[in-house]
Amino acid sequence: MRFTSLIVELIRARPRLIFWIVVLAQAALWLFLPWLVYGSPPGDVATVLAFGREYQVGTHLGPPLAFWLADVAFRLAGNHIFGVYLAAQLCFILTFWALFRLGRAIVGAQQSILAVLLAATITVFSFPGAEFGPSIVARPIWALILLHTWQIIGQGRRRAWAVLSVEIGLLVLTTSAALPLLTMLAVFVLATQKGRRALASMDALYAAIVTLVLVLPYLVWLVRADMVLLPALPAWAQLQDRALGWGALLAGLLFALSGAVLLLIANSRALDRKNEDPPLIFRPPVDSFARLYIYVFALVPPFVLSFIAALFDRDQVIGGDGVALLPAGLAIVIVAGDLIALRRQQFLRTVWLVVIAAPAAVILGTAFIQPWVGSSELRTSLPARDIGRFFGENFERRTGRPLAAVAGDPHLATLIGFAARSRPHVMFDATPQQTPWITSKLFAEHGGVVVWRAADTAGTPPEDIRTRFPGLVPEVPRSFERLVKGRQPLVRIGWAIVRPQASGQGSR
């Protein structure tokens, strides 16, 4: 006897409803969990905000779009980090919406939902779910590019050229992975008859012009900054280490798919001991060109992007794991066939929920248990708001001016940079060329705060800071309690004020 659950019936009858329930629930989880648990932003979010507030056309970190969007989101939320968390989840929603539409065009809405459910288990789409930067912004843009490219070459929809041209430009303005990704796309289009036919139109020429106009300022900056050349290739003796690094990156990508693999194993016929007739999810036959399109962009980017990263000794896949693995769920669904049987439905739902909830459980366990059992510091445990408020208010009280700049320890400086009320410029004083908006001369003229991790009660600055700031007079170190009080010591920050020398205001 065949039993059909409510979930299966909804997949068959209301696939769009299932999509919005799943995606919005996961987005809500990763919107409010960091807001409630994190005392300071995860990963490099504080650095992204420090660079974003300067609105540079380009920096050593890469193209500018993600940094600009971070600052806009932060300002729209009243200078609160919640705006950045919201922007990250909007990227997640847009990515999966584009993936669902692409799947619907190729395998139908019902199996497209299965592809979305599988993609949701890929760890890079949920853990960590609150970071924001180029790799996060690149995901929805790449997903939209794949969608609209398919509409052009697979469905003959010429109107998609206009939006595709903008998306290609935005990808170039977002990630350094744009060049290899667009090269792969161009090779596929040129190598297929349908692709060449789509290019033989004025629409392609107009799209190229629009893209060039969008990216021209950044290209000019690359030339002027002398950053067009690739890093030096490794020596022959280094190739073995680089090959091992490539293997490690590929292993990381495979691990990210472990949730989807676990679901496939749970749904296998070998584990279905009841031998009942399971409900089936049908789809129309997928033509060979559509299969080729999905297989190419599910398999080639992980190998190419990880190879480039390993070749230049990077410890992360170029463009991020999310970009590399974007169509993986859809590829698995296509491989599964025209009829997908859903065996042991209750067990499948349990496994899927466990996989989805596991990253959140890790975050909660790490935030509330690690302070009691571990000695290493969590970046998210620092009270960013309290730190920023203290140094901002003390500088203003002593000088009568808003805090204009902060330097010293990069992590502490970036926290103060977004958390202080005046949003001071952040100066990477050890590498001043990386922050050209605030030079040593401007720092001395407008004044600022220099911070470091205090190693003694006197607040003696480290040797490298004393060298870069001669004559620095340290203040009594300030201690801050961590977000979760455990066995770890207080956060003790040494600091000193560089008083302004100019008459003008120090912040813009």
Could you describe the 3D structure shown?
The protein is mostly helical and 508 residues long. It folds into two domains: 11-225 and 238-344, no CATH class; 381-498, no CATH class. 59% of the residues lie in helices and 6% in strands. It contains 21 helices and seven strands. The protein has helices at 6-13, 15-37, 45-52, 65-76, 82-107, 109-120, 134-153, 160-172, 178-191, 193-199, 202-224, 239-256, 258-266, 288-311, 321-324, 328-336, 345-373, 384-399, 410-419, 440-446, 463-468; strands at residues 280-282, 339-341, 405-408, 425-426, 448-453, 478-480, 491-498. A five-stranded mixed β-sheet has the order 4-3-5-7-6. The protein has a two-stranded antiparallel sheet with strand order 1-2. Residues 504-508 have low confidence and may be disordered.
Structural class: mainly alpha
Anisotropy-based shape: globular
Regions with pLDDT < 50 over 5+ consecutive residues?
504-508
Largest sheet at a glance?
5 strands, mixed
Strand content: 5-15%
Report the strand count. 7
Mean pLDDT: 90
N-to-C order of helices and strands: HHHHHHHHHHHHHEHHHEHHEHEHEHEE
Q: Report helical residue fraction.
A: 55-70%
The total tally of domains equals: 2
Number of distinct helices: 21
User: How is the largest sheet built, in terms of strand order?
Assistant: 4-3-5-7-6
Over the alpha carbons, how many angstroms does the gyration radius reach?
26 Å
From the N-terminal CA to the C-terminal CA, the straight-line distance is: 72 Å
